[in-house]
Amino acid sequence: MDTPIDREGKLKCSIEYTLNKIGGKWKTVILWHLGVDGTLRYNELRRLLPGVSHKVLTQQLKELEEDGFINRVQYNTIPPKVEYSMTELGNTLMPILEQMHIWGTEHGSS
Question: Which residues form the HTH hxlR-type domain (predicted)?
């Protein structure tokens, strides 16, 4: 996992570091669904995220896996089956995501 240090060896802003890891339109929503709904298959995530393209969802899942927030398990079946779940590190984000959910609910988003 990357450390929050810039090219000059200075510590980056911790919020900048966090947003670099989980920011963007889909990563936090993916993490929320995996944290609340548990293990999900790729197509289940697609249905939960209307408007996300195959390319973007695949890339976001890959980045979340590389950063250690989610697990990806591929079963060698026909048709192929892939499941995603939260890691221990990913679960540490749930209190933050819960607060975001509460704030969004209280300020006009459902």
Answer: 13-110
Q: CB neighbours (10 Å) of residue 44?
A: 14
Nearest Cα neighbor of 86 from 56, 45, 51, 47 is 45
pLDDT in tens, 54-100: 999 999 999 999 999 999 999 999 988 999 999 999 999 999 999 99
Helices 54-66 and 27-37, axial angle in degrees (round to 10): 70
Q: What is the CATH number of domain 27-106?
A: 1.10.10.10
42, 64 in Cβ contact below 8 A?
A: no
Q: What is the DSSP string of 2-37?
A: --SB-TTSPBPPHHHHHHHHH-SSSHHHHHHHHHHH
Q: How confident is the model at residue 11 (pLDDT cuts 50, 70, 90)?
A: low
Contact yes or no for 45/30 (Cβ under 8 A): yes
